[in-house]
Amino acid sequence: MAGDQRGAGVGPQDAAGRQGGGVPQRPGFDPAAVADQMTQLDGAAVVGPAPSAAVPPQPTGAPGGAPGAPGAPGAPGAPADVSYQPTAAAFPAQSAPPAPGAPVGPYDPQAGSAYGYPQNAPQPPAPPAYGAQQGGYATPPPTAYGIQQTGYSTQQTGYGQQGAQGYGFPGPAVQLSPAPVKQRNPVMVFGAIAGSLLSVAIVIGLVVLFNGNSSQHNTAGGTTGGSTTTGGGGSDAGKLTVSWSVPKVDGSASDQRTLGVWTTDKLVVRGDATGLTGYNLSDGKAAWTLKVPDGAKAFCSMSKDVNKNNIGGVSFNLGDDDCAAVGAIDATTGRLIYKVGSPLSSKSFSTQVTVTDTTLAAASGSLLAGFNLTDGTSVWSYKDRAQYCSDSADTAGAVVAISDDCAGSSPEQQLMILDANTGKTTQTFNLGSGERLTNIVSASPLVLQISSGYDNDYFVGVDSTGKVEAKIPLKVTGQDRLQLSSDSDPMTKSLVIGNTLYVEVNQNSKTAIRAIDLVGGSTLWTVDGGAQDGLRLVDRKSAPTAIAMDGFGKSGRVLSLNPTDGSVTQLAAFSSKSNANAFMPFQGAEVFYSTDGRVLSVPQLPMEATATLYAKG
């Protein structure tokens, strides 16, 4: 994931000088071709030497064009938050990247940081498991307010020395035989909606939402133009009640931490370090279970989604916390299609994976490669641009993002965007001194979070033409630091729809949702929906959706938020007979809202239940 570092010389080399033994390595970059496409952060185009006649095997993005236009202002009439006004454009305009590949899975891409072992900050109070998120190049905890923008490089003299070995690992893919599958009952399709809620450990003061003392909560705060009606009273007819619940599994709490959740038309698949299990959406009964295969110690991570053929990707811990193997799984049957990988000389502590219709891409500081989704053969392998580089990487959707720090090279810090299907570089940007990728906040549209020294981290969008939008700080004076999730994180804390980022914030001792314009950088609105204990964000790509927590002893509601002004419309209410009035099922859980109005909750830690489905009575 973003945050792993890799020094020079990672991975064994064969007699031909290739790293990774059995996996073919990518040849080196053509410095002239790559320099031609690069541009400076301050907006000035960099003219590189003419491309050489010989085309290198790894194409790069198109040459940088004219300096990017400044980001457009926020939406007309929207109340601007001066604290989120951008101070500078983050990157210059770039040529348009290739058209995105087919959607990854039958559901919309989900917002989520890469996860692997170990994690950066455990959310519920439990030790980290294999596959829990690892922190990257994070800044120290804030002790003072204020934003200081970091300057950018203003000159480029081309690449430094070449010769670093490619990423990847030796070892052929191991084809596995099908596993027996239990019969499943047909159910209605969950729509292209998936999401999760912010863990209590993430937001300061969020624990007050669940202490049962409703008199301490202030219902004011935020701009809201929507309904303030609370649920819980009257008849339970037509309200959401528990349809089924899967009991919690005995075992170590750290091993039971959810690595990811996949959904198909008939199943919900939950994975942890010990294995993956597919449950029927119709009755909650287990359809299949896949344990850790021979040669691996545990599962490390899962792709955020399955592709259109219900194939998902995973990574494995081969021992000693080295998540250097990957595999493809048929989510319909639970069959492990293949496992490929061998231990690396520089451990891959956190390997994030993503799947397209043809390729499984893996990203960490030690493993950056693509594999055929059918048989695990090597498709591409990333090669550093210089001999001594330290890398951060993340992958989501059809995108791989890499930032490097190459000592003695010019520029030293650089950010590359790769096509996950081919490994080809589509865009290249210079970074300022000490800056590096934290994670991919959203793969489509592309939004990146950048670490930039002490408390100067920011996020920035890149539009469909490759133009970089406003640089928006995560920390502003007088407000809590924004907590964004990556597009590969199994627990969503933020999501991007169109040109707007939606994120949970702490306001007046309860959780509100803030909308931020990615083009101009201004805050559009902040709402709490009139809910006594605030809102919890649900990832729904068609429109922002939230669960309203209306206080102790009252059932909650499912709300749709108007993107323009944050006004709310009630979609459903929970029955007083359900256990939703305490909202323990939604505390640090991945939540799905289906097209037919059902709500599925999969907790990060199965303290009370492994999964629960609510349906209208």
UniProtKB/TrEMBL annotation:
Compositionally biased intervals (Low complexity): 44-53, 75-94, 129-138, 145-159
Pyrrolo-quinoline quinone repeat domain residues: 325-440, 485-582
Gene3D superfamilies: YVTN repeat-like/Quinoprotein amine dehydrogenase
Parts of the chain that traverse the membrane: 187-210
Annotated spans, Disordered: 1-164, 217-237
Keywords for this protein: Membrane, Transmembrane, Transmembrane helix
InterPro entries, sorted: PQQ_rpt_dom, Quinoprotein_ADH-like_sf, WD40/YVTN_repeat-like_dom_sf
Domain of life of the source: Bacteria
Feature: compositional bias, Gly residues: 1-10, 222-236
PANTHER family recorded: CELL SURFACE PROTEIN, OUTER MEMBRANE PROTEIN ASSEMBLY FACTOR BAMB
Name assigned to this protein: Pyrrolo-quinoline quinone repeat domain-containing protein
Lineage: Bacteria, Bacillati, Actinomycetota, Actinomycetes, Kitasatosporales
